[in-house]
Amino acid sequence: MKILDKQQRLIKVETLLPYGIYNDLINDVNTSFYDKQQFSLRRKTERKTWIFFGFYSKEITCGFAIVDAGIAATAFSYIFIPEENIFVEDKTTIPFGFDSDFNPNLYDTWVLKNYSIHSDQSRMFLETTNKKYELNIRANNNDNGFSVVAPSKEKRPFNFTYKNLMIDSEVEIKYKGKSYHAKGNFGAIDFTKGYPPRETMWNWLSFIGKTASGKTIAANIVDNFNDNMENILYVDGIKTVLSKANFLYKKPMDKNVWKINTLDNLLHLEVLPLGKRSEDLNLMFMKSKFTQIFGEIKGDVRIDGKLENFTAVGVTEEHFALW
To answer: β-strand 115-120 against 123-129: which pairing, if any?
Structure first.
């Protein structure tokens, strides 16, 4: 499968873009045409929208998310500072947390309680101040991401996702009277909006690192979601579409090494867990259970036919949702 030309709008004259992988961000992902179907119930019962931002450096790993799942909204963040073995997390869940007309694009304003995302064109500001810590992320998103328009199931229209990696970012943390800071091309973004199946299960991997010869490397890999269409490898900024991937791991997930490989033999790696962030949310009509592992990654990648070792930092997860 090849990466198609950049597109500006997901839906035009009531017609959805063909399924596929598109270069960079589809700027306009207004879904009102589909949201108004089924007596306007689709907006609250089927459409899911979220932004997850990860920062993967040796000094700091952190995650920040705001999620609109229709009947409930949630936001969470976590910080991990390996040198001091600090892991702290925060989360909030609010039933019907977003208005029925909330129909965001990536660079719109997202606010849920003490979590906010604001943008000045492609410059993003993600912030939360809670009882435990203060987290501020500044990210300069570039034009080297990719968008996926994928089929859904159960007569649901489609699912859309935009991913980008190696984003120039800066993180500032205040925790227990101390300040922590890191910056570099360590940012990764996941912006998803669509109508996933009522019962959804996936494995996901996102990482950023370097090869033994100094090439920058990053990847986004998923299994059992979006028809495995969002498996993309970056080497020195050049994107390559990967095949389906296998995720092999044992429970407890944060105590055992994960082994992940793509069937095209371009990528083989192991994730060595350093910690986890997990959640088991049960709101009767909606359930979400996931474990996200963050840790060190090592493996080999085939570049121009030659194998090269690499090391990286990133996250992998198991997620089940009934929504």
So the answer is: antiparallel
Say if residue 172 is exposed, middle or buried (CB neighbours under 10 Å; 0-12, 13-18, 19+).
Answer: middle
CB atoms within 10 A of CB 232: 21
Give me 268's structure tokens. 């083989």
Q: Which pair of tokens denotes residue 192?
A: 């998803």
Q: What are phi and psi of 161, to 5 degrees?
A: -145, 145
pLDDT tens-digit series, residues 19-58: 999 999 999 999 999 998 877 789 999 999 999 999 999 9
| pLDDT tens per residue across span 182-219 | 999 999 999 999 999 999 999 999 999 999 999 999 99
- Which of the listed CATH numbers 3.40.50.2300, 2.40.370.10, 3.90.1150.10, 3.30.450.40 matches domain 3-322? 2.40.370.10
Mention every residue, 6+ apart, whose C-beta is less than 8 A from residue 49: 67, 68, 102, 104, 192, 193
